[in-house]
Amino acid sequence: MKVIELKDWGLEHVAVSDRADPTCGPDDVLIEMHAAALNFRDFVFVRGGYGREGGPLPMVLLSDGAGRVIDVGKNVTRAAIGDLVCPTIMPGWIDGPIKDEYRRQSRGGSIDGVMAGKMALPESAIVKAPDFYTPAEAATLPCAALTAWNALAGIKSGDLVLTQGTGGVSLFALQFARAMGATVVITSSSEEKLHRASALGAQLGINYDSHPDWAKELLRMTGRRGADLVIELGGAESLPQSIRAVRTGGTIALIGVLSGANAELELGRVVTRGLRLQAVTMGSRDDFEAMVTFIEQHKIKPVIDALRFTFAETRAAIATMSQGRHFGKLVIEF
């Protein structure tokens, strides 16, 4: 079968290769893969950004994918032939909080990813996709959607959620939060993207080029209330503003560090206002299944960028991901 491998560090070393077809054991499902979705972590990985936590090369790339079950082992009860399923990114993480042993087995980072014609996986390491999704739509869920879902834990009707940018995590957070009854504010440097986010349900938008001190603008727009939750994706440059934008007793869900990993913070403001800074890294298989139930109840469809890629265009897809011009998720179909 064909796979997309990283043979050495660097985008130029992403290539199509051949591997033997996998076999289906008694506790396994055999999946014919049909789609994959990109995350910024994929670009970081191909450049060697995982350091010691990166797995040995060659490595089959990408963490997020979906396909149809074409065979099941004799002991399998969680899936049937024909089901559309997603491999979980950390196959050992079934429930509870994240642990080091789960993190060390991360698809497309320390173990082979989803860019393969077929995958044989333990039935414990898959989740059935929403029953009205296509493979391309299902492929968007394992990282971005699950991260947004867990970042919103505890959000209730009437809360104010601010999310940064218009990538996959932010737009899933927007859709989930609106379905929960929250008011959503979104930030972007593009008026066109803010308009599109408004069409998805964002009640307020802030252009951070026009308003570099966007925390001040949020406080002005909300009568100095501030956000109950900020979905923090920027890291070093935006985290200080998120601290000013969140209400007393509010939460900042730290998900990304796109602008840098080292930040100088006003810790006095964090302490005296009782803020909660919570890192969010995807979620367990049980979290994933709870999210799928919510998606089915609310008929939520993922936002996928108009630009699509083929299996052989994986290198170009990863390069495009790094440019940050997309709206929603970038998807590869095969």
Descriptive terms for the model:
334 residues, alpha/beta, Quinone Oxidoreductase, Chain A, domain 1, Rossmann fold, 2 domains, seven-stranded mixed sheet, six-stranded parallel sheet, 27% strand
Overall description:
The protein has helices spanning 40-46, 100-103, 135-138, 141-151, 168-179, 191-199, 214-221, 239-245, 267-272, 285-298, 314-323; strands at residues 2-6, 14-18, 28-37, 59-60, 64-72, 84-87, 118-122, 126-128, 160-164, 183-188, 204-207, 227-232, 246-254, 276-279, 304-310, 329-333. The chain is of the alpha/beta class. The chain has two domains: 2-140 and 302-333, Medium-chain alcohol dehydrogenases, catalytic domain (Quinone Oxidoreductase, Chain A, domain 1, Alpha-Beta Complex), CATH 3.90.180.10; 146-279, Rossmann fold, CATH 3.40.50.720. The strands form three sheets. Strands 3, 5, 6, 7, 8, 15 and 16 form a seven-stranded mixed beta sheet that branches. A six-stranded parallel beta sheet has the order 11-10-9-12-13-14, with helices on both faces. Helix 7 (214-221) runs parallel beside helix 8 (239-245).
Short summary:
The chain has 334 residues and is of the alpha/beta class. The chain is built from 11 helices and 16 strands.
| CATH topology call of the largest domain | Quinone Oxidoreductase, Chain A, domain 1
Strand content: 25-35%
Query: So, CATH architecture of the largest domain?
Result: Alpha-Beta Complex
In the CATH hierarchy, what is the superfamily of the largest domain? Medium-chain alcohol dehydrogenases, catalytic domain
Low-confidence stretches: none
